[in-house]
């Protein structure tokens, strides 16, 4: 039975509503249904195009605009990649670092990207830039790539820009553990070669109202807390957020990606204790932390509030109950480290 204009209108409305709710598969099925009966339907074509962006986290754009980040990788790649190098770009995204490795002369480059929509576009980017003779993209998680299927020879260099604001949240430790054990040659170069985490105690009054959310304009909004990611850090640019520093910056810990620690599960974290001296009086509400990214013996780059890597911002972990502290007082802080998450407690 053929569909009338009214049917098509209804399908388009429904598809658009699904798209707004980020229900990609449902929206896609309806847009395709419209195109089956009306192959030139403009709204359905545009709707399908727009769906692609739903599966792409929009921070990719901000990340690609971070020239210091890009340049830090370019410098290191130009230093460590040679004509003999087989390079794995673990988490290739747009394929930017894979292309840098090819431009630096790499013999072969494999970019792997877990998001199939991104992988498809990355392959297109590689072709558009004329590097498809040496750069291959696979739409797989790095744990699933196989020698003899996806690549022929183990890798000399692994690029792993899979760092979130807190450093570990995108799974850099488990991904690199697998890659160094199964995909890389012994003593392969890993970039970044490691990260050092630094922290500072802060008062951030404006945000305390929503961490956890309680009274707003005289109303109890605490039920809204269900929508908040609790017991985790939030990416915040401290330069834009009014706050007071209540301590000096102190080191949390360093990870050497060439000498990875054993797996630390979420439910059995490693606990480290810190005695932090308060340099100002105030309400201790949060710990802000960030990473310095090391590139072998190259310079290090910082995602700190005064650092070069701007797109990451800083990771801010709010305590459930803030405490009043006095200048000169010592605070006993614990950090709970697991493979992909860092949390804090006051003891
Ligand atoms: C932070 S982005 C960086 C993209 C690119 N490397 C760059 O520097 O411009 C990380 C990308 O890696 C992908 N990813 C993260 N872990 C991965 C893994 N273990 N295997 C494959 N892709 C991964 C994510 O989907 C994301 O697109």
UniProtKB/TrEMBL annotation:
Q: Specify the protein name.
A: Protein arginine N-methyltransferase domain-containing protein
What does the UniProt keyword field contain? Methyltransferase, S-adenosyl-L-methionine, Transferase
What positions does the domain Protein arginine N-methyltransferase occupy?
199-335
Transmembrane portions of the chain: none
Question: Which lineage ranks, top first, belong to the organism behind this chain?
Answer: Bacteria, Pseudomonadati, Bacteroidota, Cytophagia, Cytophagales
A biological process from GO: methylation
One protein family per Pfam: PRMT_C
Gene Ontology terms for molecular function: histone methyltransferase activity; protein-arginine N-methyltransferase activity
Q: Which domain of life is it from?
A: Bacteria
């Amino acid at each position: 039975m053929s569909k009338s204009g009214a049917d098509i209108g209804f399908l388009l409305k429904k598809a658009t509503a699904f798209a707004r709710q980020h229900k990609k598969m449902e929206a896609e099925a309806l847009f395709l249904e419209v195109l089956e009966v009306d192959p030139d339907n403009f709204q359905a074509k545009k709707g399908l195009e727009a769906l692609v962006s739903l599966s792409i986290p929009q921070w990719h754009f901000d990340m690609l605009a971070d020239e210091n980040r890009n340049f830090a990788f370019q410098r290191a790649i130009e230093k460590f990649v040679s004509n003999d190098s087989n390079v794995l770009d673990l988490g290739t995204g747009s394929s930017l670092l894979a292309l840098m490795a090819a431009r630096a002369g790499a013999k072969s480059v494999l970019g792997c990207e877990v998001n199939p929509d991104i992988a498809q576009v990355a392959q297109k980017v590689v072709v558009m830039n004329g590097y498809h003779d040496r750069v291959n993209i696979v739409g797989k998680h790095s744990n699933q790539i196989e020698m003899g299927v996806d690549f022929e020879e183990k890798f000399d260099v692994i690029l792993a820009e899979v760092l979130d604001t807190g450093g570990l949240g995108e799974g850099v430790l488990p991904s690199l553990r697998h890659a160094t054990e199964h995909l890389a040659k012994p003593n392969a170069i890993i970039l970044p070669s490691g990260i050092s985490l630094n922290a500072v105690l802060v008062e951030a009054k404006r945000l305390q109202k929503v961490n956890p959310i309680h009274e707003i304009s005289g109303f109890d909004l605490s039920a809204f807390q269900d929508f908040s990611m609790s017991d985790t850090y939030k990416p915040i640019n401290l330069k834009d957020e009014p706050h007071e520093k209540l301590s000096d910056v102190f080191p949390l810990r360093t990870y050497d990606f060439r000498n990875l620690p054993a797996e630390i599960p979420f439910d059995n974290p490693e606990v480290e204790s810190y005695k932090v001296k308060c340099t100002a009086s105030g309400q201790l509400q949060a710990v802000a932390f960030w990473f310095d990214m090391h590139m072998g013996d190259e310079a290090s780059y910082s995602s700190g509030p005064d650092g070069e890597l701007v797109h990451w911002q800083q990771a801010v972990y709010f305590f459930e109950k803030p405490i009043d502290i006095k200048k000169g007082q010592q605070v006993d802080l614990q950090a709970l480290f697991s493979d992909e998450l860092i949390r804090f407690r006051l003891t």
